[in-house]
């Protein structure tokens, strides 16, 4: 009898939260291998060791890993290019726009005191978009190359389960094909959650997909949702001159995973750059029937109503798993109340050879989380073991300054009644930040009060997204703050702020 485990119902899907995942609970419904699992095939010709449905980060990484292990693998992807949300309409295009609009903003506002004289600076939006497309097409073609290199077949089309081992593909070029797999990995990703009453046209009422492709700078933009995607895209258009107002239901920006102190500091810095915020505010309704969009808001707890006018409204209230048309009804697979496919800790559904990874199941909706799961899921198939540490998955917001964190934040530790110590170090006291005239923000460590073991690292400041890798490694290895502080960090680097914040947690920082 093959035992399966309980679904990870306690895991959080809160978009990009990076929050720790609770301990795994023993089986609620042990299953047995059934006859269907052992059935043979009519035609061996179409048989694969592994079929992957979805060629996003989760799917393409799983396919490459399986190809490297010598499995006969096909990856079904319906989009014209590989790489999924991340490469086509997510991480990559948004970071291209964030990087280039930051440069533009810096040239406009931050050159004089550096002795750089610039005149006649203006933005060419069409070229900005072209630069973004160059990055995207280079990277998506790169995945195609890696598929060839690792003997992965890309089946271009939409896959749906015909039975537990058979996936029918509606081919892009027309016609159908049936593939049969010993193992199947579902990696169909996620989609933007719509806002009731507003019709997404990706021009006037947009999701992040529209926000990375606007043809001109809107005069007024309202962002519904002050999470990472809303703030990143709001930043892009604010830097280009839009008057951006972010409406957020919660009392802080950045989502629940962001440390409240960091969120407060970040909000101040973004407000200084021109973004406006309405926290503790809910959008009650919207009207997109005329040229502009009217958004009605009121205090989250009820109160005075207000109407905001916008040329463009960005709906950024989160993402939801995408599993439409997969034909689950044909094989009896279940989703939970949030549309997440139910799996055990080895990513298996109740049909053990069908696994699910990435955004369409539990955990934070992050590309690197999807990638970790892809490697682990294939290792479970090929070796019988795999590993993902959900307590050490970093989150990064690529605004300027960047915000990054890993592990638990202060509000979570307080809620759990954990006794902890705090150590902070400001970039204004760091020699490299001072040299670069880029001194906003700080590094914050949270450690166990008794053992000094690191529980969380939170950074708002220059290069936070790169620096958090050191915090993640420290957390992964169960390091103490003293371990980090006694490790030599090159001078002058921003990472010295990291070391000094660790030092400030159990002792005193030297330079502050
Ligand atoms: C604007 C934006 C910015 C982001 N920035 C970051 C970031 O900076 N860092 C980060 O870590 N994460 C970021 N993310 C999140 C990240 O993009 C996702 O976590 C990641 O793409 C999830 O990968 P996935 O493979 O699970 O799903 P996806 O990337 O969504 O891929 C799923 C793929 O499956 C295909 N598919 C679906 N159904 C079928 C079917 N039936 N047959 C065939 N193909 C199918 C889809 O076409 C799609 O290509 C961002 C997301 C957005 C929207």
UniProtKB/TrEMBL annotation:
Active site: 491
Source taxon at top rank: Eukaryota
Disulfide bridges in this chain: 86-91
Essential cofactor(s): FAD
SUPFAM superfamilies on file: FAD/NAD(P)-binding domain, FAD/NAD-linked reductases, dimerisation (C-terminal) domain
Enzyme class: oxidoreductase
Residue stretches in coiled coil: none
Ranges where the Pyridine nucleotide-disulphide oxidoreductase dimerisation domain occurs: 393-502
Name of this protein: Dihydrolipoyl dehydrogenase
Species of provenance: Trichodelitschia bisporula
Lineage, uppermost ranks: Eukaryota, Fungi, Dikarya, Ascomycota, Pezizomycotina
